[in-house]
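Batch manifest, entry 17 of 40.
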Amino acid sequence: MVERMSDMPPGTIGFRVNGDVEREDYTDILRPALQEALDAHQQLRTLYLIEDLDDIEPGALWEDSRLGFDLGVRHRKEWERSAIVTDIHWMARATKLFAWMIPVYPLAELEDAKRWVAG
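Output type: structure tokens
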């Protein structure tokens, strides 16, 4: 499940992941929130808090690819900062490949990650 975080600094968007990720998490939560910011001509400053990740259904993977192309590639200039916050060891290690672009913070440093995303 993906839910939008309400306790984010102004000008930022946060998402909390806990459990299974489904197609609807992208179509009903992620895409609309990001598109709303783009429609308002805002730079995208995003934080992804991944507390637990049990399963990602195939439809979610497809939507992730679509979102990556539609909003990532087509609007690459609007992406200002993104950060991942997680204590899931394998995920933190896997995302270090992109650490130059998307830093990874442990859960204990969530507030630091929020400040960094806010700029």
